[in-house]
Amino acid sequence: MKTSKASAFFALTFLLFAAFSCTLTDYADSDTLIVSAREAVKKIEEGYILLDAQKATSYGKRHIEGAVNIERKAIMIKEPVANSLATAEIVSQAAEAAGLTESSNILIYDDNNNMDATRLYWTLKIWGHEGDIRVVSGGFKALQAAGLAITDQAAPVRKTTYHAKALNKSMIATKEEILALLDNPSPDTILIDVRTDEEYNAGSIPGSIHINHERNMFINDEKGSTFRPVSHIRVLYKELGIMPEDEIIMYCKSSVRAANTYAALYNAGYRNLKIYDGAWLEWSSEKLPVFKTEVKAQTSTSQTDNS
C-alpha cells in the first residue's frame, strides 16, 4: 500500500513538472555558454585557449598548466567608480598580453565562484570578441578534480595583436536608463539586485527584485561552486515572473557578481540582458532614491569576493 501511494505521488509530480516544462518553450535555445570541467577538457583538446581569471598573484602560485592569465584589474578601471568597464584600448592590451586575437576560442575559469570568469566573458563580448567563449563551471577546483595538471610556471604567450570592436551598447545600462525607469516603470523591464540579503536590506534601487547571485549556483568551497542546470535557472526566474522576452537589467555593488547572473540567464536562453555597470557604488554615491526593506532577511554567509 505504501509503495502504491509513493508511486502515485512521484507519477503526479512528474506529470506536473512535465506540464510546467511545456511553458518553457518560449526560451531561445541555449548556446551552452557554461560548460563542465569534463567538457572543458575536450575543448582544450580541440584547441581552445585556457584563460585564467584569477588574481595574478594567485596565478603565480598555482594554475592549470597551459593557462594564460587576465586578472580582474587588467580589464577594469576606477572611473567613474571602482571596477568600471575598461576602455577598448585597455581591454585590447590585456588580451594581447595573454596572446589572444579577436577570433580566439576561449575557455575561462577562476577561483572565485565563477564571478571573475563571467565578468571577463562579459567584458570581451561587449567589446566585440568574435571567437567562441565558454565559462568553466566550478573553475580551478573543478578542472583540478577533472585531472588537469597544476603548475606555478607561467605558460608561454604568443605575440599577437588584438583590436576591440565598438562597444555593444545593448549589453550595458546607464544610470540615466535606471532613473527613467523610476519615473516611467515598464512591465517588460526587470531590474535585478543580485547582492546579498544584508546588502539589499541596507538599501537598494527602488523597484528592483532581489535575487542573490548565489542562487544561480551550488556553492561548494571544497570542490568549486558549479552553476545550476539550465532547467533550474529557467524555473527559478520564471516562477518570479521574469520572462525570456523581458528586458532584464542587473546590478550589484560594482557589477562583478551581476556578470554571474548575466551568464546564468544567457546560458538558459535569455537574450535581452543588460548590466548596470555603475551599480550600487555609483547610485549610492550620488544620493539617488533608495528603497530600504522593513523586515530583515537572513544574512548571507558567503566568503566570496563581493563586488
What do these coordinates show?
With 307 residues, the chain is an alpha/beta fold. It contains eleven helices and 16 strands. The chain has a five-stranded parallel beta sheet, with helices on both faces. Strands 10-16-15-11-12 form a five-stranded parallel beta sheet. Helix 2 (37-45) packs across helix 6. The relative contact order is 0.16. Mean pLDDT is 90; it is low at 1-26.
Walk me through the topology:
Blueprint: H1 2-21, E1 34-35, H2 37-45, E2 49-52, H3 56-61, E3 63-64, E4 68-69, E5 76-77, E6 84-85, H4 88-97, E7 106-109, H5 115-126, E8 133-136, H6 139-145, E9 150-151, E10 172-173, H7 175-183, E11 189-193, H8 197-202, E12 209-210, E13 217-218, E14 226-227, H9 230-239, E15 247-251, H10 257-267, E16 273-276, H11 279-285
Parallel strand pairs: 1-8, 2-4, 2-7, 7-8, 10-16, 11-12, 11-15, 15-16
Antiparallel strand pairs: 3-9, 5-6, 13-14
Helix pairs in contact: 2-6, 5-10
Q: Any descriptors?
A:
11 helices, 307 residues, alpha/beta, 5-stranded parallel beta sheet, globular
In short:
This protein has about 300 residues and is α/β, with parallel strands linked by helices. Helices cover about 35% and strands about 15% of the residues.
Quickly give the structural class: alpha/beta
What's the SSE pattern? HEHEHEEEEHEHEHEEHEHEEEHEHEH
Share of helical residues: 25-40%
Strand neighbour order, sheet with most strands: 1-8-7-2-4
Global shape: globular
SS element count, helices: 11
Largest sheet: 5 strands, parallel
Radius of gyration: 20 Å
The unreliable regions are 1-26
Based on DSSP secondary structure assignment, what is the total number of beta strands?
16
Rounded mean pLDDT is 90
Distance between the termini: 54 Å
Give the amount of beta strand, in percent: 5-15%
